[in-house]
Design goal:
The chain is an alpha/beta fold and about 325 residues long. The protein is about 45% helix and about 10% strand. The protein has helices spanning about 25-35, 50, 60, 70-80, 90-105, 120-125, 135-145, 165-175, 195-210, 225-235, 245-250, 260-280, 290-295, 305-310, 315-325, and strands at about 10-15, 40-45, 45-50, 80-85, 110-115, 150-155, 180-185, 215-220, 240. β8, α10 and β9 (about 240) form a beta-alpha-beta unit.
Length: about 325
């Protein structure tokens, strides 16, 4: 089995899977803005294996696995791998859906979500709830690995109500996943408080003590490219996964961090809107786009007024007209 995880010259940099964020449109835009060699991995949005296994629900759930032709071209050009992230709590369904994804799609790997802290998901016994049911978690990993020739990785947290890093990481390592991404918060924290990078470093030490070469990526509160380089060295991780940091700067994956002009930001605002319209017009709710506009409409005179107007937009054309009215650059 080919395992690209061990072929990447580190530190490995990845954009985290995020619901209603890391669709094919946003991934393409971030890839286009990234410097070659500074971004290695993308993940799809969270994809429910139960939904993929449902005769009616599959059509909508499978939208999370769509990759546009233009995105695929830029990924190939930049050498960025794309991984399908899946979640659920039934090993047999993981096996069935993983086989289907492997045979019908063109992904480079499979990642199992054992870290999402959302309460209604946890109540189902899925995602970070699996930290508390390690035998089931291991069954899921083994079933997924058995179903595919692709490398199978895991994204998780350090515990449920308290850090259980030593116990949990030891149990994960027993299954020999292709890689582990560890978020330095427990489930109870959700996104509150600070990520504990000492716990992430503890996971690396456990891996090293066992003489394993399984890559471990750290995740949590990394807001700049320079910080990702510093944390990789300071905490001994093999790479960094970026989540909310991308909302501070869509040009995150560049070694030279430049102050972007208003025209550059408006160009990407329009380009993102155009990509979303091309990929999802008539399919997804236009309002999903509004969470992104604060990324671009900031840091220049009149930005707050423009943001307010964008929040009131009701269509793609409204957005284009607002930008045109400001005499800004269109892509």
């Amino acid at each position: 089995m080919s395992n690209f995880w061990n072929e990447i010259e580190g530190p490995i940099l990845a954009l985290a899977p995020m619901e209603d964020v890391t669709d094919t449109s946003f991934r393409e835009l971030v890839a286009q803005l990234s410097e070659p060699g500074c971004l290695h991995l993308f993940f799809t949005e969270f994809t429910a294996v139960d939904g993929m296994n449902h005769p009616v629900g599959k059509k909508r759930v499978s939208e999370r696995l769509i990759v546009s032709d233009s995105e695929r071209a830029i990924l190939k050009e930049k050498g960025i791998r794309l991984i399908a992230q899946i979640w659920g709590n039934k090993p047999e369904v993981f096996y069935k859906v993983t086989r289907e994804i492997t045979e019908e799609y063109q992904f480079d790997g499979i990642d199992i979500n054992m870290g999402c802290p959302v309460k209604n998901v946890v109540k189902q016994g899925s995602c970070s709830a699996l930290i508390g049911t390690p035998e089931l978690a291991q069954e899921i990993i083994y079933a997924t690995k058995e179903a595919t020739h692709l490398p199978v990785s895991v994204k998780t947290r350090t515990g449920l109500k308290a850090h259980e890093t030593e116990r949990w990481i030891t149990q994960l390592l027993e299954t020999k996943p292709a890689a582990i991404t560890l978020h330095g918060r427990v489930q109870k924290q959700q996104s509150d408080g600070e990520a504990n990078w000492n716990e992430i470093a503890k996971a690396v030490a456990i891996r090293n003590q066992q003489g394993l070469t399984i890559p471990i990526l750290g995740n949590g509160d990394v807001l700049s490219y320079a910080q990702s380089m510093d944390y990789s060295q300071q905490y001994g991780v093999d790479g960094i996964m970026i989540g909310r940091g991308i909302f501070h700067n869509p040009w995150f994956f560049n070694s030279l961090q430049l102050e972007r002009t208003k025209d550059e930001k408006m160009e990407q605002l329009v380009r993102h809107t155009q990509l979303f319209e091309k990929n999802w017009g008539g399919v997804k709710n236009f309002n999903i786009l509004k969470r992104f506009y604060k990324i671009y409409a900031n840091g220049f005179e009149g930005a707050s007024q423009l943001r307010a107007k964008l929040m009131g937009a009701n269509s793609f054309d409204d957005v284009y007209q607002l930008v045109n009215a400001q005499n800004m650059v269109l892509s």
